[in-house]
Amino acid sequence: MEKSVTILIGGEAGQGLLTVGQILSKALVRSGYHIVVTQDYMSRIRGGHNTFAVRASASPIHAPREGADILIAFDARSVNEHIRNLNDGGIIVMDAEEQADCQGFACLRVPAASLGKPALFNIMAAGIAGALLGLDDGLLEKCLREEVGDSLQEGGEALRAGCTWARGTGISRSLASPSPATPRIMVHGNEALALGAMAGGLRFASFYPMTPGTSVMLALLSHADRMGLIVEQAEDEIAAVNMALGASFAGAPALVATSGGGFALMAEGVSLAGMTETPIVIIVAQRPGPATGLPTRTEQGDLNFVLHAGHGEFPRALLAPGSPEQCFKLAARALRLAEQSQGPVFILTDQFLADSCRAVEPFDPGSVQPVYPRESCPADEAGYARYAFTENGVSPRALPGFSGNLVVADSDEHTEDGHITENLAVRARMVEKRLRKSDILRKECIRPVCLGDEDPDILLVCWGSTLGAAREAAAELSSHGIKAATLHFSQVWPLVPEGFLPLLERSRKVVIVEGNATGQFARLLRRECGFVPHARVSRYDGLPLTPEYILRELVDEGIV
Amino acid sequence: MVCIEDFGRFETAWCPGCGNFAILEAMKKALVASGLAPRDVLFVSGIGQAAKAPHYLNANVFNGLHGRALPAATGAKLANPRLTVIAESGDGCTYGEGGNHFLAAVRRNINVTLVVHDNQVYGLTKGQASPTSDEGFVTKTQPHGVFSAPFNPVAVAVAMHAGFVARGFSGEIEALAGLIAQGIAHPGFALVDVLQPCVSFNKVNTFNWYRKRCAPLPPEYDPTDWDAAVNTAAEWGERIPVGVIYRNDRPCFESHFPVLDTRPPAYGSVDRDALREIIKAMG
Asked: How many CA atoms lie within 13 A of B212 on its CB side?
């Protein structure tokens, strides 16, 4: 197991724990550490109980851990709820005014009232945790200023007071020194999606606010003016998807982002994209359903829904990034695939990845090729037909106003020139033409990646955001002498079995790990290639999969 | 020079005597009067008999989903504001299925001209009540007559200070063409609600019923007077005022995005250096 430290910050919404978390995370990243952030918050603005956990290590890490080494408790409830998570040697940091049983753990009772304004306990706590971790005071202060602005002079004093006070206790939890590395940036999954989309040529985005999809749009909006994007909050998700399709039809690479419930309203637009052959990228940041479900928690429960949403038959692709790096790459790839196949391409993420900050090497916009639909417009031709029958099913796409070619798109079944028809022979040919585009998607499909032993006794199969947890669980098994590996699908549709079936078949035990109750990906694999796994690990309580959870399940199921 | 022949003549799927023919004719005249060639214009329509209209002239067309003409038109206009974008559909599509989009389009004041074929009944689905059906209107699906009060799109648009609000009548082709042309010229959202008969399913609000009631606004009428417009828009009975009922000079939605003047989305390209800087600043 990697040497890592987890700082768990607990308290009510509105107490400022996000500020502490951000300051510490940023300072850790700037000091050269790797981090994995997990945010567990309730669907409310004040009160309740939220946590922000940051795991840090000098070597690369990929998943959250359940155990905490430093518990920053904003209230007694946080101590009571999380003391069971404390690892041996764990430290509790709490306001001296709060009463809680620390059960023999080292407890730093902070005399907040004598160190400064008690209301600034959160900033003192950031200083204390920073000092315990051995972070530089000046760096912490800089991160504080970036987080809260220069105006809060008392903030700097509270932070320094916290640092000094913590050093006076003689207690520390210093991390190993990181090896000098290229500077890293701190991003969460949704920011990475936004950056990747901008690099990939995105010009238009529309949305209706819905957690945990909204932060894609917030990230786009914060750079929209500079990057020349149009980002519009629509009156509802139906409008959002139709707006994006209108924009795409007119030549702007477009995306929408939402969550399951909002996506339900977009289903008719998915079908419209299929019929009108209009490129669109749809990001679905999953959260537990059905209905409103757990609005701020995580799940991988919408695979079936996204795979099948939209009436009628038409091709689609579903990408499922497993890390911020993949978010960046796949967002750009999704725009390209949508353009190539002239239809809908989905990105399935979830609350865990959406909100999980990581330290990554700065993304290189030059590493992806942006899409410019106007550049592939056909020249003026007599009798231009938007839906001309072609061998691969893709018809040259003119854009309205860019040439004398008139572009006619129709949600009704249509002739080659886009006009409504009930000629049933034309209908059949159009169905075939649209479905021929599946071959392009299949050809462009990303193969799943195997990490670890190529001839494993245990193969953990996962998709999307569970990559890190599965990977660390497999590494843990390997460290105990078990030949283990992880197979991660960053694309879950279409599936090309030749790329992975041999590995599934030669692995002694195949366990499918996914964040839903019914084993949606396991069933999809069985449907597509007849493969039945030996066991499943599933989680559906709203929390992300962790290496510990996977290992416990493997033991319980008698797999190891 | 653009002429009416440029827009072509096509076989339609409409009933003989339908008001749609006149509206189509008025639309072509309005485009010619506006000096717009087929390639300059994008029609966005929904679903219904009226929504088929763009198939019957030469232009760019996005014939989308029932109720969704306005969002698609909004997206297209924002992607390429150099296009003249006209949303065209019926009363059921626009005010029923698309009611929320209608309100949002008025609020945004997007520079799209909305032409609504308003015959107070559903045609393509065979004669159910529409949002503009009068109370008591009997249909197969409202056998005891419509219980709900009718939606007055013109009054709602005026109440919301829509940029341009007109009511026309399919029986007055020249006047209607003039209203549509004014709507196109208006730099903001323009509603042209067109009263028209449905010969197959509306036996109450017939051609003659409208003909008798539709009264052009007097020359001295001032469409910039909102208070007067509120009253004029609400008039519905023995006399139904037609003409430009209200207009204002609210800045259009697009004017808030400088990039739309310089490099609209359809013409844009990725500024990689700017993006590199953005990414670097996240360190």
From this structure: 8
B19-33 helix and B173-185 helix, angle to the nearest 10 degrees: 50
Q: What is the pTM of this model?
A: 0.97
- Is residue A451 over pLDDT 60? yes
Q: How far apart are CA B166 and CA A302, in angstroms?
A: 46
Averaged pLDDT, B134-145: 97
B80/A252 CB distance under 8 A: yes
What is the residue-averaged pLDDT of chain A? Answer: 96
Q: What one-character DSSP code corresponds to residue A234?
A: -
d(CA A333, nearest CA chain B) in Å: 15
Residues of chain A found within 8 Å of residue B274, distances taken between Cβ atoms? 226-227
CB contact under 8 A, A239 and B101: yes
Provide the residue type at B103 as one letter: L
Nearest CA distance, A8 vs chain B (angstrom): 23
Cα Rg of chain B, angstroms: 20
Contact A501, A262 (CB under 8 A): no
Q: Two tokens at A56?
A: 């840090």
Chain B: closest CA distance from residue A351 (Å): 21
Q: What is the pLDDT of residue A148?
A: 87
C-alpha distance across the termini of chain B, in Å: 58
> Helices marked H in A102-236 — which ranges?
112-115, 121-133, 137-148, 153-169, 189-199, 214-227
Determine the residue of chain A that is closest to B281 in CA distance. A185
CA–CA dist B11, A38 (Å, integer): 62
Work out the number of other CB atoms within 10 angstroms of the CB of residue B127.
18
> What is the structure's pLDDT at A47?
85
Amino acid letter for position A144:
L
Cβ under 8 Å to B: A residues 255-294: 268-269, 272, 276
Task: Mark which residues 174-193 of A lie under 8 Å from B by CB.
Answer: 183-187, 191
Amino acid (one-letter) located at A325:
E
What are φ and ψ of residue A147, in 5° steps?
A: -80, -45
B80·A249 Cβ contact <8 A: no
The answer to whether the beta carbons of residues B179 and B165 sit under 8 Å apart is no
Rounded to whole angstroms, the Cα distance separating B45 from B66 reads 8
> Quick one: CA torsion of A429, A432, A434, A440, rounded to 10 degrees?
-140
CA distance linking residue B147 with residue B137, whole number of Å: 9
Rounded to an integer, what is the distance from CA B74 to the centroid of its chain? 13
